[in-house]
Design brief:
mainly beta; two-stranded antiparallel ribbon; 12 strands; disordered N terminus
Length: 244
């Protein structure tokens, strides 16, 4: 259902060279997760599966994500240094589900929305029995929920948002006076940056594995997807999280 506006991408291409600019338009996010895989089902207004983009009324998806959270945030509390004194940040693996419904906001002019609940579970991990591969030793975990909004994608803008996010995380490895588990509730918001392809003339480039891809920064400039932001060659959706 995501349709990129070629005119929009042309403006991006002319605005700034792809290699220019910093990784962030503002302060670094508290956590960044990348969508490694996703399984989605597209349904029409009658609830039947459809492959026709013009008939999609609902999108139900499950994604596997991985990334990191900065030290001192709810998913990587400073108290963790008691048991892992060399920690600089914490790796996070998550499973997220969304149920997005496409609806009409206004008929004159015609405006559509794509919104729905976002829920999931996550595990905080550190290096375990193999320091060469990714972290795998679980030290904590929890659940989250929020309101997803992919409405910008309906007009060709490769962004989505999570608002009103809440969650809880438990760290059994952190000592608690009097016993029990270290537990913290948290609130958050998030921004999805969907990768897109762009040809040298600013037109919509053909998407394919290992081909150059870009994210849209907050200032409207394109940002090239790094090699470490790919999954077996494919550019990944980037989820930036800020705790509130």
């Amino acid at each position: 259902m995501v349709v990129w506006s070629l005119a929009f991408l042309l403006v991006l291409a002319l605005a700034v060279p792809a290699a220019a600019g910093s990784r962030h338009s503002g302060p670094a996010p508290d956590a960044v997760l990348y969508e490694v895989t996703e399984d989605a089902v597209f349904l029409d207004a009658s609830g039947n599966p459809t492959g026709d983009p013009n008939q999609i009324a609902r999108r139900i998806a499950t994604a596997q994500l991985t990334g990191w959270a900065a030290l001192g945030t709810p998913l990587c509390p400073s108290e963790l240094l008691v048991v892992y004194p060399k920690a600089k940040r914490c790796a996070v693996n998550a499973i997220g589900q969304d149920d997005i419904t496409i609806g009409v906001v206004s008929f004159d002019p015609l405006v559509f929305s794509a919104t729905g609940p976002v829920t999931g579970q996550f595990v905080v991990v550190v290096q375990g029995d193999n320091p060469t591969d990714g972290p795998e030793a679980a030290v904590g975990g929890g659940t989250f929920q929020g309101a997803g909004d992919l409405s910008p994608t309906l007009t060709g803008v490769p962004l989505g948002f999570v608002s009103g996010g809440t969650g809880v995380v438990v760290f059994p490895v952190i000592p608690v006076p009097g016993g029990g588990y270290y537990t913290q509730e948290f609130s958050f918001s998030g921004t999805f940056r969907l990768p897109f392809s762009m040809a040298s003339d600013g037109s919509h480039g053909r998407a394919w594995i290992n081909r150059a891809a870009f994210y849209l920064k907050d200032n409207g400039n394109p940002l090239r997807v790094r090699e470490d932001e790919r999954s077996i060659g494919w550019a990944t959706v980037r989820l930036e999280i800020n705790f509130e």
